[in-house]
Design a protein that fits this description.
Rossmann fold; 13 helices; seven-stranded mixed beta sheet; 423 residues; five-stranded parallel beta sheet; 44% helix; alpha/beta; 2 domains
């Protein structure tokens, strides 16, 4: 369990507990009509008064909404991920509110566009930390951005849970950081042990990664798992976020005996590297980390995407499962395209966060502290999403199982199941 620290600002930011129905004589016609009109008016007035009393009573009994903040890149190069994350949360919250909310409390959230910019992220974190109405933060997208904001959220005593950040160094930064996705170690171990060594049968790889905290962490985990499995890393190439020209790297790697190129990046960078390799006639296999497992890869590359591998912890079998038809329809209506791993993990993350709030209310009251404790104590039996159950590691991270997918005939296809590493 994460060891709680005493924060001077925490007590000031802890939210208060939310509070967990005819006369026998003859009269002229005009007189009778007037009496009837007066009686009708009195009846209407009484009805209006009763309605007003009922409305006032209902308003006095209404429970305060539960607010959280969603932080994601809605513009810029990583916007597709952020838009999916927003849609996943919107669909989950709509479902919860349609079912009566959390113990009668409506769930509401404000959205902040981080632009995948660490400077923007810090300013947003300050705004959120200063507003007591927010019970938790869902986001941000990248590990780099999450790590930039983590000290601010930690000082405010507010949970920061990302459905996509995976750097090993992020969750240990404090007591309020939690993963909804998976660790980079689990991702790297699947890439090297299962995908490349066991499924593809290769022994020599090159690794392309972003030159930031997330990319460096990914490379360290790939190196660690490659050494364990006897894989040789022929070349390691770091590039700046947003890089579009990989021609010199491709030219350099073509002079080696590399058998497979691993790319730890977003889909725009991965697409550029693959495109430039194919344009010079090099059919080297590409293995993309889960951060690049996007349908945008196929849209950008077209036929050049054929054969590309990636890993993800989202089972695309739900597309053919009738029990998910309504969810997928609602997601597509909200987002504008089919749900992928990022939308699914956001939907799940929002679900477990709201489930933790419900458990905190049932245990006596919802505060930032009680919420954090209930989230940390989550067991697989408490909540299971479409990407699997939640049960956190000691530092708040999460290890999920992965699937190997490959582009075939213009779409991603599962090549392994979750049990493949046990076969």
């Amino acid at each position: 369990m994460k060891k709680l620290v005493s924060l001077a600002a925490a007590s000031a930011l802890v939210l208060g507990t939310l509070a967990g129905c005819s006369s026998g004589s003859s009269a002229p016609a005009a007189t009778t009509a007037a009496a009837t009109t007066a009686a009708a008016a009195e009846t209407q007035a009484a009805a209006a008064e009763t309605k007003a009393e009922e409305t006032t009573a209902a308003a006095s009994e209404a429970k305060d909404p539960i607010w959280f903040a969603l932080v994601a890149p809605l513009t810029g190069g990583a916007s597709q991920y952020g838009l999916e994350q927003r849609a996943g949360a919107e669909v989950r919250v709509a479902e919860i509110n349609a079912a009566g909310g959390i113990d009668g409390h409506e769930v509401k959230f404000d959205v902040f566009d981080s632009k995948n910019d660490a400077t923007e992220v810090v300013e947003i974190a300050r705004q959120i930390a200063e507003n007591d109405k927010y019970m938790w933060v869902q986001g941000d997208f990248s590990s780099t951005d999450c790590m930039a904001a983590a000290p601010i959220y930690e000082d405010a005593g507010i949970v920061q849970m990302s459905s996509s950040a995976s750097a090993s160094a992020w969750c240990p930064m404090g007591n309020h950081q939690f993963m909804g996705g998976s660790t980079q170690f689990a991702d790297a171990n699947f890439i090297t042990t299962i995908a490349i060594k066991k499924y593809m049968g290769y022994n020599k790889i090159a690794v392309l990664h972003q030159n930031n905290e997330s990319g460096t962490s990914a490379m360290e985990n790939i190196q660690k798992t490659a050494d364990t499995n006897g894989l040789e890393i022929v070349s390691e190439e770091a590039f700046e976020v947003g890089e579009t020209d990989f021609s010199s790297i491709i030219s350099k790697l073509r002079q080696t005996d590399v058998e497979c190129i691993v790319v730890c990046a977003n889909y725009t960078e991965a697409s550029a590297a693959i495109k430039q390799a194919r344009e010079v006639g090099w059919d080297i296999p590409f293995m993309l980390s889960a951060s690049s497992a996007s349908d945008q890869i196929i849209e950008i590359l077209g036929d050049q995407a054929e054969g590309v591998y990636a890993d993800e912890n989202f089972n695309r079998g739900i597309y053919e499962d009738a029990q998910y038809a309504d969810l997928l329809k609602k997601f597509e209506e909200t987002c504008g395209w089919t749900m992928t791993m990022y939308g699914a993990l956001s939907y799940d993350t929002c679900g477990v966060l709201c489930n933790s709030a419900e458990r905190a209310l049932a245990a006596g009251g919802l505060t930032r502290d009680s919420f954090r404790d209930c989230l940390e104590a989550t067991k697989a039996s408490d909540f299971e999403g479409i990407c699997g159950p939640f049960e956190f590691n000691e530092d708040g991270s999460l290890d999920r199982l992965y699937l190997l997918i490959q582009v075939e005939n213009g779409k991603w296809v599962d090549k392994t199941d979750y049990a493949y590493d046990d076969k």
